[in-house]
């Protein structure tokens, strides 16, 4: 079967048996994460969804508490996980927070949640991924990465004016660089790492985007009705690339890539600044300083 932008997550795993595979999906109680978890579970996987408030999550899957903006919470989750891990899907995220916020380590909140928390989680679960023999790290990024290289001079917007879209784009560049950095370091452990753009899907991710902005983007009419875009995807179409990278045998051994529409992205889809190995190494070192300095790691 040839996969396209309209291939659904269910179609991706048609005939694939994931029985016995242990998979974590962050933010897996709603939206894309929930659809990703559902399809993987339908294929036989043992799925755990990691969410901020598991007691309030309405999901049929096993839940565990995880606040990605809090490195103590990340460390607690890691301590609670035992045994091999076949795939970690770094799906949870926030977008376009209107005002600058920071986490306890002083990281801007979108960068802290979308990138640093997932970096610490992947680092903490490295041995579990390695123990599976063919662990997979799947990082959900965005096409927004193309507009925002990582700014090492002022990554936390301490001096430059805070721009919620630049902050979001930078966090998604960092997500791609996470996959590139992990691929460079963990290949010998049998771990693959890839990033992806799920496409445009209306989910709770847009909760910080006001109506005026949606109208200016052409995504909402004057009556507040969402305008379906030609490139819009359903939840199942949006979850497809995550499911491909987490569970399909067709991408076994593929690592360090950025995917769109169920295929390795072309040069017009993947920005060079997000795939640069030297930048990935520099960001890895920068993030490692915050993770190792956290009280949870002392």
TrEMBL record:
The keyword Oxidoreductase applies. GO terms for molecular function: oxidoreductase activity. It comes from the Bacteria. InterPro entries: NAD(P)-bd_dom_sf, Sc_DH/Rdtase_CS, SDR_fam. Keywords: Oxidoreductase. The keyword Signal does not apply. It holds the Pfam family adh_short. Belongs to the short-chain dehydrogenases/reductases (SDR) family. This is Probable oxidoreductase. It comes from Winogradskya consettensis.
């Amino acid at each position: 079967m040839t996969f396209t932008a309209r291939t659904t997550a269910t179609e991706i795993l048609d005939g694939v048996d994931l029985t016995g595979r242990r998979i974590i999906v962050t933010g897996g109680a709603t939206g894309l994460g929930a659809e990703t978890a559902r399809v993987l579970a339908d294929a036989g996987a043992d799925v755990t969804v990691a969410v901020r408030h598991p007691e309030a999550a309405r999901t049929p899957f096993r839940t565990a508490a995880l606040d990605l903006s809090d490195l103590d919470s990340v460390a607690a989750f890691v301590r609670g996980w035992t045994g091999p891990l076949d795939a970690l899907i770094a799906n949870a995220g926030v977008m376009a927070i209107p005002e600058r916020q920071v986490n306890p380590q002083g990281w801007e909140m979108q960068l802290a949640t979308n990138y640093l928390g997932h970096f610490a989680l992947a680092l903490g679960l490295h041995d579990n991924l390695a123990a599976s023999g063919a662990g997979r790290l799947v990082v959900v990024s965005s096409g927004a990465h193309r507009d925002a290289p990582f700014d090492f001079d002022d990554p936390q917007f301490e001096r430059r004016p805070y721009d919620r879209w630049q902050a979001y784009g930078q966090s998604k560049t960092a997500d791609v660089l996470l996959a590139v950095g992990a691929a460079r370091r963990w290949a010998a452990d049998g771990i693959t790492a890839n990033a992806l753009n799920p496409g445009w899907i209306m989910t709770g991710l847009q909760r910080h985007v006001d109506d005026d902005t949606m109208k200016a983007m052409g995504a909402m009419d004057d009556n507040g009705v969402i305008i379906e875009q030609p490139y819009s995807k359903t939840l199942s179409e949006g979850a497809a690339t995550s499911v491909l990278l987490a569970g399909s045998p067709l991408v076994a051994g593929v690592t360090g890539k950025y995917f769109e529409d169920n295929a390795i992205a072309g040069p017009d889809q993947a920005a060079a600044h997000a795939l640069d190995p030297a930048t990935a190494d520099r960001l890895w070192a920068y993030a490692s300083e915050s993770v190792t300095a956290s009280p949870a790691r002392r």
